[in-house]
Amino acid sequence: MFGEWWTADTEAVISQALQTGGGPNVSDAFTINGLPGPLYNCSAKDTFKLKVQPGKTYMLRIINAALNDELFFSIAGHRLTVVDVDAVYIKPITVETILITPGQTTNVLLTTKPSYPGATYYMLAAPYSTARPGTFDNTTVAGILEYKDPASPSPAAFNKNLPVLRPTLPQINDTSFVANYTGRLRSLATAEYPADVPREVDRRFLFTVGLGTHPCAVNGTCQGPTNDTRFAASVNNVSFVLPTTALLQAHFTGRSNGVYSPNFPAAPLVPFNYTGTPPNNTNVANGTKLVVLPYGASVELVMQGTSILGAESHPLHLHGFNFFVVGQGFGNFDPVKDPANYNLVDPVERNTVGVPAAGWVAIRFRADNPGTYQFNRAPVTCQLDVPDQQS
């Protein structure tokens, strides 16, 4: 379990960021199973140790529970075979390093060395980020892979005299590694585990995701990209406002007026060069708007990253559904050329996907789970509404 360690009150951190409009203060450390490890000051004793025996195969169930950081993970001297992402089997791939975004899970097989190696091995996790205006914790957390010494009667006591080997992680902004890794993930697509990808599409959407600005309040002090602005995340130029009445309750009682409006734009109202020169006006609108989907509809959603305030990868999670990642690329999505390269045979099935920095990703799913669901990565949020068959 990858997480973060804070000495500050996290509610106070969020409150300050909302008041100033700047990026939130970063965490003091990353953690593995709650422990920051020996690479941080004063925490050498607070280190997660994975004790193993030679010639065995172990399954590691990896979860990224960090707030806002995509993480590289690697174990020195060992390769990892990825067999599952977001609780769905994939065609196994063997790698030295994985990438896991907030909210994602990854199961890997770790095969230990055939005999006692006389060494211990760092397990490292460090962030992937291309953000220029944003803030992130640029540190590395370490755990230790420790072999049981067959000559020792005690159970896998850590021998401080053994060399500790360290893996080499990708550079913090290694977008080509990320694209190559995510592009290798494929569903099993077998008779037992089929990839039931929608071939026909009933509804198509293009969502731009990224950072814009809000004007600073009168006589206010702001810490956005300029002194008179605040950072504001948006989808199709709409920055989500959380209502005081539950959305599902408003839908169920038929009293949506004043709570939400069902007119979320299916595409940007004002198209622009999404990954090129940003528009002069970077302000975004506020609203509580929903995408309403007919029950059972087959949906294609293209999420287009923007570079309005710098290109950044955006992991997005769809509540209530799994989806198939049928395509991805860099630059602006081309609705004429790009769909010809979709993978409709064995695309990976997920519930969380990263929108590439200065790029796009296309997903497909069936709207067959009635309810209202967020599609979000804090603070980027959109809301889906799927009525039941009788609505």
TrEMBL record:
<dbReference type="InterPro" id="IPR011706">
    <property type="entry name" value="Cu-oxidase_C"/>
</dbReference>
<keyword id="KW-0186">Copper</keyword>
<keyword id="KW-0439">Lignin degradation</keyword>
<keyword id="KW-0964">Secreted</keyword>
<comment type="function">
    <text>Lignin degradation and detoxification of lignin-derived products.</text>
</comment>
<keyword id="KW-0052">Apoplast</keyword>
<dbReference type="Pfam" id="PF07731">
    <property type="entry name" value="Cu-oxidase_2"/>
</dbReference>
<feature type="domain" description="Plastocyanin-like">
    <location>
        <begin position="2"/>
        <end position="148"/>
    </location>
</feature>
<dbReference type="InterPro" id="IPR045087">
    <property type="entry name" value="Cu-oxidase_fam"/>
</dbReference>
<keyword id="KW-0560">Oxidoreductase</keyword>
<feature type="domain" description="Plastocyanin-like">
    <location>
        <begin position="270"/>
        <end position="375"/>
    </location>
</feature>
<dbReference type="GO" id="GO:0048046">
    <property type="term" value="C:apoplast"/>
</dbReference>
<keyword id="KW-0479">Metal-binding</keyword>
<dbReference type="GO" id="GO:0005507">
    <property type="term" value="F:copper ion binding"/>
</dbReference>
<dbReference type="InterPro" id="IPR034285">
    <property type="entry name" value="CuRO_2_LCC"/>
</dbReference>
<dbReference type="InterPro" id="IPR008972">
    <property type="entry name" value="Cupredoxin"/>
</dbReference>
<dbReference type="Pfam" id="PF00394">
    <property type="entry name" value="Cu-oxidase"/>
</dbReference>
<keyword id="KW-0677">Repeat</keyword>
<comment type="similarity">
    <text>Belongs to the multicopper oxidase family.</text>
</comment>
<dbReference type="GO" id="GO:0046274">
    <property type="term" value="P:lignin catabolic process"/>
</dbReference>
<dbReference type="GO" id="GO:0052716">
    <property type="term" value="F:hydroquinone:oxygen oxidoreductase activity"/>
</dbReference>
<dbReference type="InterPro" id="IPR001117">
    <property type="entry name" value="Cu-oxidase_2nd"/>
</dbReference>
<protein>
    <recommendedName>
        <fullName>laccase</fullName>
        <ecNumber>1.10.3.2</ecNumber>
    </recommendedName>
</protein>
